[in-house]
């Protein structure tokens, strides 16, 4: 049972925020996935796409190619196409998490979309 005492509510909120800010962004995301029952397939796509993107950026040749890429060449560049594909998978997973999840969807629509 949660307290209705104003001081207890404020203290609980402060503790909750303190605990969250001690986590890395990826740990917050992982915690949220668990706490809000996000589907395993969504979590796999989210972390998988993130990992693939970091792996690409870890390669010197890929970083160099992207750094030198001109906007006019982006539609035909194979490296950029690969990054874009990863980005689309990541975006789709975020959409599923924040808009399709029965617990997070209403909160996102009410407090997260301006």
Notes on the structure:
The chain has helices at 6-21, 25-35, 40-58, 60-68, 78-100, 104-112. The chain is mainly α and 114 residues long. The radius of gyration is 19 Å and the shape is elongated.
Properties at a glance:
mainly alpha, 114 residues, 2 domains
Counting structural domains, the number is 2
Oligomer: single chain
Q: Report the C-alpha radius of gyration, rounded.
A: 19 Å
**Major β-sheet profile:** none
Q: Into which percentage range does the β-strand content fall?
A: under 5%
- Helix/strand order, N-terminal first: HHHHHH
What helical percentage do the residues reach? Answer: over 70%
- Terminal Cα separation, in Å? 33 Å
* Shape, per Cα inertia axes: elongated
The total count of strands amounts to 0
Low-confidence stretches: none
Number of helices: 6
Average pLDDT metric: 93
Outline the secondary-structure elements.
Layout: H1 6-21, H2 25-35, H3 40-58, H4 60-68, H5 78-100, H6 104-112
Quick recap of the structure?
By secondary structure, this protein is mostly helical. The chain is 76% helix and 0% strand.
